[in-house]
Amino acid sequence: MSSIDDPERRYQLSRDRLKDADLHPDDIDAALEFLDAINPDISTVNFTGENGERETKAYGTLAAYAQALKRVGELANTPLVEMPDTRAVNAFFDEIGSGTHPDVKEGGYAKSTLSQWQSGVTKFYEYHDDLGINHTEVVVKRQPKSSVDERDMYTREEIQELRDAVNNTRDRCVLELLLNTGQRIRAIQTLRVKDVDTDEGVYYLNTDEAGLKGADKNGSKRPLLGAARPVYDWLKDHPTGEPDDYLITCLPTAQRGTAGEKLSQSTIRSQLKKVAKNAGVDKPPNPHNFRHYFVTACKRDYGMDESTIKHLIGHGPNSKVMETTYQHLTDDDHIRAAEVAADMREPEEESPLTPQVCPTCGEQLEPEAKACPGCGTVFAPDAKAAEDQIQDDMKQSYAETDPEDSDTQEKLDTLDEILDDPEVKAALAEKLGED
């Protein structure tokens, strides 16, 4: 497995390079102590944050800090542990940012690179507060949060074209997991067979793996929604089926790879590109684009509250992701509402996550269907709306039967009585609304 896919291994490699770098010995010792202090798996040395509690970082962040301290140490004429004051630290970053530093290319380093290095150095000085550098005064050139480019967003028709272009159960499983969960590629890549429960329609983030970027901090249980049947179909073809093996692994017919081992992220991305090419869809088939599609559907088409959306995709309640990355949704909502009010457009009722055909029972689905009227498979994240639709569709199915069919009419009357029971309604809502 590539070290790129394993944050812990990537960190260890970065730490080793830092340890062996041609730096002042005191800088190396101070940097390694700092990294150990924020390593969640080391307890011999701790870093107490401003809130008085121990602060740790994920392995991906640790790797970035190790790389930053190594490169800054190589460029700085003065060791980090001997910097006279905060002004000297900022002056150094100004030099490498502008390109006036003798060892830096003309034009200097990009703001994104500087921001990463400055963040690592700032945290380093926050830990080593005895060095006389005020970490709060180290200037960090933050990059503005990028928003979603609406031109890259998939349409419902393009999603269906991608679905039609998939030619094996594993790739269909990957596509539907990305579409229906909004998770990052790392979360999907690290799922094990035992982490998915297609009977209950849920999955559990693999908290034994690093690199989830905090997605598991809100709990690990999430709904599979429309991915439940594709996951079930792939499990039947899975080369091992062993509970502890990875869900997304090589095909049974593969000539290379080890059955049960996780696919690399580069392989997953390559397969998605092949699907997009076969479908004739020229928009970026990267996993994050499917994440954006999911969030957009939840917010714009299903009207979910932002706290629920953030929970589903793994952001904490204080995250600003909806105000930054998905700002376009608020703008679109206002424009759409104004145009509907002015009779310039019809209200949109399509369910963007709903396929043309139910993968569970083969029922043809209407574009606005949030659940299959044939088998009850839920496709929309707003489970309450799906519950209402299931009730209506089931009643309608019975109502359209022969009036002389007394058995069916009796079932209909019984169903009405059951659905009128508040306890049954509450249980159904709870079942469909499980996270």
TrEMBL record:
GO biological-process terms attached to the record: DNA integration; DNA recombination
UniProt keyword annotations, A-Z: DNA integration, DNA recombination, DNA-binding
Gene3D superfamilies membership: Intergrase catalytic core (1.10.443.10)
SUPFAM superfamilies according to UniProt: DNA breaking-rejoining enzymes
Highest taxon, organism lineage: Archaea
Xref: Pfam families: Phage_integrase
Protein name: Site-specific recombinase XerD
Biased composition (Basic and acidic residues): 386-395
GO molecular function: DNA binding
Chain positions covered by the region annotation Disordered: 386-410
Domain Tyr recombinase: 149-340
